[in-house]
Write a structure and sequence with these properties.
Blueprint (H helix, E strand, L loop, with lengths): L4 H7 L1 H15 L6 H13 L4 H16 L6 H16 L13 E6 L6 H14 L4 E6 L6 H12 L2 E4 L6 H15 L3 E6 L9 H14 L3 E9 L5 H13 L3 E5 L9 H9 L3 E5 L7 E3 L2 H9 L1
Parallel strand pairs: 1-4, 1-5, 2-3, 2-4, 5-6, 6-7
Antiparallel strand pairs: 7-8
Helix pairs in contact: 2-3, 3-4, 4-5, 5-12, 6-7, 8-9, 9-10, 10-11
Bound molecules: guanosine-5'-diphosphate and magnesium ion.
Length: 300
């Protein structure tokens, strides 16, 4: 299994070099001049941390400088580390899975990595001793259910799929009944990323949430976001947050991009924690996100 800090460091390799190359010029200066502050700002923005989050970080660091808490370059480096960790710790709390069964809706736009992530999470919770039921709720794409069925077979997980075009909320209703009857702990639901009918995607997701809640079932929503979409991902995330609420974010494809700085913006601007990171296309390529380890990886 690869659920370790080592692989987070490896997955962040491209992001790390993006930070490192730019930081080298900031931290090679001998004193805290206006130029250092300008370089730091530029560095954070070009590393995909985003304008608003960069301003938050610099505001905090400047405040510390005014109070005399940061006096030289080493102090700035230390302060930057702390501020970056603080951005990632926004809204952090354990993802409670104590109620049985709990429904986890995995949402996000097409291509973000939802189906792959559902398989990875299924494996993760299965290995943690949970009884996991997968639900192929992306009934709008011809291959949607088939792709998840293949993963389920590979991983030895149970999977419920419907006909193409079937009502995803009705499918979830059946899945909940089945989970109750057969004692599943976690009902992991893949969802559509776009809908080809008059129905709006967000309405469809809201309907699924409502189905579970009316049966007194706890629902958690995890947003899957492709790291390589960078700052555009923030706008996507906001749309989902406003429609269905978010209990956490899974950032995929960190292995293939230098845009991992976007994780700081995602957590800071949405107030929702990054819980897992996708580090490749295989079922084990999922890492439990650790803010401290991630910051250490990108700054060292
Ligand atoms: N490199 C890499 N590829 C990924 C990751 N997660 C998903 N993918 C790939 O992204 C593509 C889209 O994934 P899929 O799960 O079908 O996305 P969906 O449309 O949101 O369900 C597939 O080729 C996956 O193998 C990841 O963490 N790293
Ligand atoms: Mg899919």
């Amino acid at each position: 299994m690869s659920f370790s800090i080592g692989s987070l460091r490896q997955a962040a390799a491209k992001t790390r070099s993006a930070f490192r190359d730019r930081l080298a010029s900031v931290f090679s200066k001998s004193e805290l001049s206006a130029e250092v502050w300008d370089d730091l700002e530029e560095m954070l923005i070009t590393a995909d941390v985003g304008v608003s989050t960069t301003e938050n970080i610099l505001g905090e660091l400047r405040g510390r400088e005014r109070k005399g808490q940061i006096r030289e370059i080493d102090g700035l480096r230390e302060g930057l580390h702390q501020e970056l960790v603080a951005r990632l710790n926004q809204g952090i709390s354990a993802l409670a899975l104590d109620d049985q069964p709990v429904v986890i809706l995995v949402v996000g736009f097409n291509g973000a990595g939802k189906t792959t992530t559902v398989a990875k999470l299924g494996r993760y919770w299965q290995q943690a001793g949970k009884r996991v039921l997968l639900v192929a709720g992306d009934t709008f794409r011809a291959a949607g259910g088939e792709q998840l069925n293949i993963w389920a077979e590979r991983l030895g997980l149970q999977c419920i799929a419907g006909q193409r075009g079937a009502d995803a909320a009705a499918l979830l209703f059946d899945a909940i009944a089945s989970a109750r009857a057969r004692g599943f702990d976690v009902v992991l639901v893949d969802t559509a990323g776009r809908i080809h009918t008059k129905t709006n995607l967000m309405d469809e997701l809201g309907k699924m949430r409502g189905i579970a809640q009316r049966q007194q079932i706890e629902v958690r929503t995890l947003l899957v976001l492709d790291a390589s979409t960078g700052q555009n991902g923030i706008a996507q995330a906001r749309a989902f947050r406003d429609a269905v609420g978010l209990d956490g974010i899974v950032v995929t494809k960190l292995d293939g991009t230098a845009k991992g700085g976007v994780l700081f913006a995602v957590a800071d601007e949405l107030g929702a924690p990054v819980r897992f990171v996708g580090t490749g296309e295989q079922p084990d390529d999922l890492v439990v996100f650790d803010p401290e380890a991630f910051v250490t990886a990108v700054l060292e």
